[in-house]
Design brief:
By secondary structure, the chain is α+β, with helices and mostly antiparallel strands. It is built from 17 helices and 58 strands.
Length: about 950
């Protein structure tokens, strides 16, 4: 399809069925200029509105336009979004004739002049699930040029020495024709309405342009000829892998390898041959593996080169292209003609420029690269059982949307005490502002968040601070720009994109599971398995990534169909086996690598992975995502129904060790706090819908979730009580598709109230942050939390969790009792202390003397207690002091903010010289301007009205 769609709309639904209908249409007048008013009429009987769930005859036009050379395609500004068409694009329904009409002037409607062709389709307001007609393309202008031979934009395969005939006609009479090949004029013909020429004895590839001029109108048609080079069969040098192979001893050379079964020959076109490859750039073919390969020479060290493969099938399947121009499937850096122009220079300085005149992605090749200078080369990962993972979508972490933002706020992570950060997909995805699951190049870093070195700097900084970094990887599927999709695709409209054919060695033609998005990998294919292993190796070895969270592992089967959801959810031996292979390969590269599956399936299948190689040294086993959003949200809202949290434990699922990564929130679930304030329980004056009341209950949620033994996960800003909906739109409104506006804002870029409103300076929100930080510290420091949990009243608003580590002695902290009251009134919560005596509140080290071990404890609504038989190895006073004050961002560009109010703030150079002072009762969100300071390290001395002083450091950029 030749229109620009919302590239990721398919992820809004688990799966969709084809609903494309063929519309009958007419255009009046039939021949028109771009300044002529036209009327598009759709025969109503050709569209079954009920198929698209359309009511009130609400059909919409989705349209796009091209210039006179059929290039520079642009969407109409009136389109709106694919999931919510603009009302300006709505058809008028004429009941008497059962027709739909839309009248407009092309130059006005498309806001451009010089239109040579328009395209359009008919759709429902929300086009999700392909609620649309076929693509329709119409020529604009009374003067039209038609290529009789060859077809416009075609590639013709010929043998060396052949002749090639070009014929064309026009609708306007006498015109001047100029034929160029490879930029050089080879024939002209003047004052004729038809054109014919034979280019003889062709021995090299030709890119043609036929330019036709009549008066002030110029139209050009492009097409090409590729000469069969009679591929040389020659053994490939040993040790080469698919993709780029740099010559470590000679920076002027690199060898490219492409695995392209069923293809006849391949050229390499690039900046090194001016994108006009000769026979010298025809790839050789290894007779053993069948792979194509070519050594490039004459390269310059440190210089960016760009290239594509021209992959040719002399006898393609019907509707498949003879030639596909594609970037390298194993690219580690790609340039995009679609996305790169909107990447800010500040995020990616000195970004290589996309080569003019090319189409589709290109690969960057650069010899003599300077490797990143890692400060930490022997990072020891936190134990799996002690992991507290902080899930981050870089796009929505702050308004800068960059790795630098994460670096600047490293203290935020450190003070929260998390020991792992999980980044949602950062591999090259389609578009720029995305969740990242629409991946097209799995080995390449997407450029929107920053450079490769900047990501490595963030990982290195995390490692310096004891924090592991985990990547979310979407290897169940790939999207349409992926080279392995495009090399074997159906492309009936010739736009260079399409779905996999039956010949595709990597992808299924139809998904083999019920939750498909994009194109579905066939994981039983050895070629797919080899590709996945290369992806694993790239991120572990090049980026020192500590683990992967594997997205949508239910899709790793070949045993089901899209329509059979019960099959998809049932135990499937083929995906059990192949996912174990991938885990094994990851562990072969790094025995302590974290392998995490988002399966959300049956216990019997998940046990296969959770218990896999658990007894080896080091202990392995796959960590399984444990979604517990609904029961924890029921507790936070104050409802006993469906509030059973017992499945937060690994043992409840039959896991032999703590391999359940439980969570109350993730990127994919509605936020607890949003539902609290929308739907929370009310009892007299106690109202969970009141913001501060809702916030006051979130510390207790942390106590009964984070401290349950086993790895846990936090979705970003849950620790500040994020109360924006997952369906928040980028303008701050909420649309979850339940109201009058079709579509939803789930995937929208989100507002940033956590920073713009200084939530860390809000005492109610800051309390959650500090309480959770203490709990996380307890979990990661105290061995008792490696013990065995027992839940009492797990299906109640009065929670009782006992944890005992029998390997510890009575002189140690070996017993913990967690109590919580999620009711809306004060309640006596059952205890059951293991023995009488002094018990310590681990959050503040206050004590109680227990004489009756079963005596209940009265807790206010939303409150909790964490008792231990001994004090924790946590100095509460020092802890609070360290977490009370935060300076951010750090490093600082123009200003910094403190999360507390101070009467005096003084800034000193490292030599002790006072360089700036602020004296006032500054609010917690006051911006301390330091733009005039020189780059370097500074000390900040902040004093409050009680003359208590805090000293901090910051780096001025």
């Amino acid at each position: 399809m030749k229109r620009i769609l919302l590239l990721f709309f398919l992820l809004l639904t688990a799966f969709s069925f084809a609903q494309i209908q063929t519309a009958t249409y007419s255009i009046t007048p039939s021949t028109f200029e771009d300044t002529t008013p036209i009327t598009i009429t759709i025969n109503g009987s050709s569209i079954n509105e009920s198929t698209w769930a359309v009511t009130g005859n609400a059909l919409y036009l989705w349209s796009w336009s091209y210039d006179v050379n059929d290039t520079n395609q642009m969407d109409s500004p009136s389109n709106g979004s694919w999931t919510s068409s603009n009302e300006a694009a709505k058809f008028t329904y004429n009941a008497g004739t059962d027709t739909y009409t839309k009248t407009f002037t092309p130059s006005v409607y498309f806001n451009r002049n010089g239109i040579g062709r328009i395209g359009f389709l008919i759709k429902a307001k929300d086009g999700s699930g392909t609620k649309q007609s076929q693509d329709i393309v119409v020529e604009v202008g009374s003067f039209q040029v038609s290529l009789s031979s060859p077809i416009e934009n075609s590639t013709t395969i010929i043998n060396s020495g052949s002749n090639f005939a070009i014929t064309a006609t026009n609708t306007g009479g006498a015109a001047n024709y100029t034929l160029k090949s490879n930029g050089v004029t080879i024939n002209t013909n003047t004052s004729t309405s038809s054109y014919s020429y034979s280019h003889t004895n062709i021995t090299s590839n030709q890119s043609y342009e036929l330019i036709v001029v009549q008066g002030a109108t110029t139209i050009s048609k492009k097409f090409s000829v590729v000469v069969n080079p009679n591929t040389v069969s020659q053994a490939m040098p040993a040790g080469l892998v698919d993709g780029i192979n740099y010559n470590i001893s000679d920076a002027t050379k690199a060898t490219l390898v492409l695995d392209a079964p069923l293809k006849d020959f391949v050229y390499v076109a690039g900046s090194f041959n001016n994108w006009q490859p000769t026979s010298a750039y025809a790839m050789k073919k290894d007779p053993s593996s069948g792979k194509f390969w070519l050594e490039l020479t004459g390269l310059v060290s440190g210089v960016n080169n760009t290239y594509q493969y021209w992959v040719v099938d002399a006898t393609p399947l019907a509707n498949s292209p003879a030639m596909v121009k594609t970037a390298d499937p194993y690219s580690t850096l790609v340039l995009s003609p679609y996305d790169d122009a909107s990447i800010p220079v500040a995020k990616y300085p000195n970004m290589p420029v996309y080569p003019a005149g090319q189409n589709f992605e290109v690969t960057v090749l650069k010899t003599g690269q300077t490797p990143y200078n890692w400060q930490v080369t022997n990072f020891v990962k936190p134990e799996k059982e002690k992991l507290v993972v902080y899930e981050v979508l870089v796009r929505d972490f702050d308004a800068n949307r960059s790795y630098q933002s994460l670096i600047d706020r490293i203290d935020y992570f450190k003070n929260l005490k998390v020991n792992a950060i999980e980044l949602m997909p950062v591999m090259e995805f389609e578009g720029n502002e995305s969740w990242g699951y629409n991946t097209s190049f799995h080995m390449a870093l997407d450029k929107f968040y920053g450079t490769s070195d900047k990501l490595k700097e963030f990982i290195d900084l995390c490692h310096q601070n004891g924090i592991a970094v985990i990547l979310d990887v979407a290897l169940n599927h790939a999207f349409g720009r992926n080279p392995m999709v495009r090399m074997w695709m159906n492309d009936p409209d010739g736009d260079g994109f399409g779905s996999p054919t039956a010949e595709n060695p990597y992808f299924n033609t139809v998904a083999k599971h019920s939750y498909s998005v994009g194109e579905d990998f066939n994981h039983q294919s050895l070629k797919t398995q080899n590709y996945v292993n290369r992806v694993i190796k790239q991120w572990i070895e090049e980026y020192k990534i500590d683990g992967f969270r594997w997205d949508l592992t239910k899709g790793f089967t070949q045993a089901c169909t899209a329509a059979d959801e019960s099959c998809t959810n049932a135990y499937q031996q083929d995906r059990v086996d192949v996912l174990k292979k991938y885990a094994d390969y990851s562990w072969s590269l790094d025995p302590t690598h974290y392998t995490i599956f988002e399966h959300l399936g049956s216990d019997i299948e998940e046990r296969e992975w959770a218990n896999y190689k658990i007894t080896e040294t080091p202990s392995k086993g796959v960590m399984m995502w444990g979604k517990m959003t609904n029961p924890y949200n029921q507790l936070s809202m104050g409802y006993a129904s469906d509030s059973n949290i017992s499945r937060m434990t690994s043992a409840s699922r039959g896991f032999n060790a703590n391999r359940l990564m439980g969570y109350a929130e993730s990127h994919d679930e509605e936020r607890l706090m949003y539902k609290n304030v929308q739907y929370g329980a009310v009892n007299g004056t106690y109202n969970v819908k009141t913001l501060n009341t809702a916030l006051s209950r979130m510390s207790a949620i942390g106590a009964v979730s984070l401290l349950v033994p086993g790895p846990k996960m936090i979705w970003h800003f849950g620790e500040l009580g994020m109360d924006d909906s997952i369906f928040s739109c980028n303008n701050g409104t909420v649309n979850d598709d339940s109201g009058a506006i079709p579509g939803d804002c789930k995937l929208d870029t989100k507002p940033q109230p956590q920073w713009t409103e200084n939530w860390i300076g809000d005492s109610n929100r800051n309390k959650i942050y500090n309480d959770w930080a203490k709990m996380i510290t307890l979990k990661t420091v105290e061995p008792v939390f490696l013990g065995t949990p027992t839940m009492t009243n797990a299906n109640s608003l009065l929670i009782n969790i006992k944890i005992e580590n029998s390997a510890l002695t009575a002189a140690e902290l070996k017993n913990v009792l967690i109590l919580a009251n999620f009711d809306t009134t004060a309640q006596n919560v059952a205890t059951g202390f293991p023995y009488p005596g002094t018990w310590y509140n681990l959050m503040d080290n206050t004590t109680i003397n227990v004489t009756d071990v079963n005596a209940p404890i009265n807790l206010p609504p939303g409150d909790y207690r964490i008792y231990g038989n001994k004090t924790a190895n946590l100095a509460i006073d020092d802890f609070e002091k360290g977490n009370m004050v935060s300076l951010y961002p750090n490093p600082v560009s123009d200003y910094f903010t403190l999360n507390s109010a101070f009467k005096k703030v003084q800034i000193y150079s490292v030599s002790g010289q006072l360089v700036k002072s602020f004296t006032s009762n500054n609010n917690a969100d006051f911006q301390f301007g330091v733009s005039e300071l020189q780059t370097g390290l500074y000390l900040v001395k902040a004093s409050d009205e009680n003359h208590k002083t805090q000293v901090m450091k910051f780096i001025k950029k």
